[in-house]
């Protein structure tokens, strides 16, 4: 028993010593990136899938839990694969050219995005739309910072908010099929289901009646 404990401690010391080796840093960073991508993807997707599934999806409890697990796994896996691919390509380019340049990041991420997120499915679609909105804000701020566009005299956010909400509700009312399914479900709940009720039970307590009255 003691011998087994000594072997484990020796293995642990060897692993810790390996982790301190600078020459293996790039490879180890790729592995930890894979780990962080998997964990972060699960943390992000699990609560979202839980809420959306129980709010908007029908089916048995078993089916709902299976749907949550599948969505969480897909998000976690894709993010892990992407981080692994991105950091691996980044390290390879830096090693080949002897230094790191900004284009390396762009190229590595483009290749990773094509390989990992290129499949047009609901999970990837949500991730891309999430990133796209933040890219537009980031590029706008960068354009002001670099002087490509003048600094606004007033905060433009109220105008952006008005245009975003105006556009999305117009699309929902007249071109609903262009919106992502989960957004359609959310807006149906908010703007259409609130038009229908029969008595106090489905006016305040429930969204829809579950009986056959």
From TrEMBL:
It comes from the Eukaryota. InterPro entries: Pmp4. GO terms for cellular component: peroxisomal membrane. Pfam families: Tim17. PANTHER family: PEROXISOMAL MEMBRANE PROTEIN 4. This is PXMP4 protein. It comes from Sylvia borin. The lineage of its organism: Eukaryota, Metazoa, Chordata, Craniata, Vertebrata.
